[in-house]
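thread: overnight batch results

M.L. [08:02]
morning all. the overnight job finished for the chain we discussed friday. pasting input first so we're all looking at the same thing
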Amino acid sequence: MTTTSLILSIVLIGIGATLVMDLWTQLLKRLGVTTLNYAMLGRWAGHLLNGRVCHQAIGKADPVRHELAWGWILHYLIGLVFAASLITLAGQGWLLAPTLIPALLFGLCSALAPLCLMQPAMGAGFFASKTPTPLKNCLRSLATHCIFGLGLYLSALVLSLA
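M.L. [08:03]
and the structure it wrote out:
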């Protein structure tokens, strides 16, 4: 596999998996379930550029110019990084014959990023411990990242058939 085709595969799989995750969160929203507002990710990143890593409550931090757009861009860039990580761990052979289990396991493990990095930095605590319903929030994050893992698999499968 050439470097160009590998990079293209990572981009397509990362975008595809993130899109599957976004469709899931849209379904949750229609069912009345609160999901992450990507403006808060953009706000956090904007403050990070100014040297502030942690917040008591990101929603109360000063807004950042274009935070919603930055949040969505970062959301998809993170999807690309996760896709590249899975392909690095599973090997390029996985791209030729994708299997579900590595993608699902990786999706579940990727939930550690929000649970152990993003939530504490945004004021929600490790594993959402500072929220009113930590267990519920952790399970929701695990489910969403499992869907992301399914998206990794489906995107790789479609790409392998093309």
